[in-house]
Amino acid sequence: MATAGKAKKLPSKVSVPSSDYYIPPVSLGVAPAAESVGEDIVGWIAALILVGLMLPLLGLLYVDILEAKHEVKAQVEKVEKLRREVEKEKRDASPDRHK
Fold first, then answer.
1. Degrees (nearest 5) of the Cα angle 72, 73, 75?
2. pLDDT per residue over 9-30, tens digit each?
3. Mean of the per-residue pLDDT values for the chain?
4. CA distance readout (Å), 12 to 7, 18, 76
């Protein structure tokens, strides 16, 4: 048999001592304390300005939506009233067919 031969042995890995390699320290993008506090303050001020501008705009949008909802409700009531009047006039104007 051709495959029944002795299995080929893979070479074993040779470990290299870690003392031979210099691993440089990883630099972290950490800002100095003074810059970090200043940036935090600017960030908070920007957030407050954003909230201060967005709340009134959202309030105006909400009031506008409520007004539109009220107007639509009034228009729907008018249309329903007119529809009932037209149906009543049709009933009164048409002769009774069931007699």
1. 65
2. 655 565 555 566 777 777 777 6
3. 82
4. 15, 18, 86
The answer to whether 31 and 23 are in contact (CB under 8 A) is no
For the chain, domain boundaries: 35-93
Q: Which helix (H) or strand (E) holds 45?
A: helix 33-93
Q: How far apart are CA 84 and CA 59, in angstroms?
A: 38
Cβ atoms of 31 and 39 closer than 8 Å: yes
Terminal Cα distance for the chain, rounded? 109
Question: What length does the chain have?
Answer: 99
- For tokens 């002769």, the residue is 95
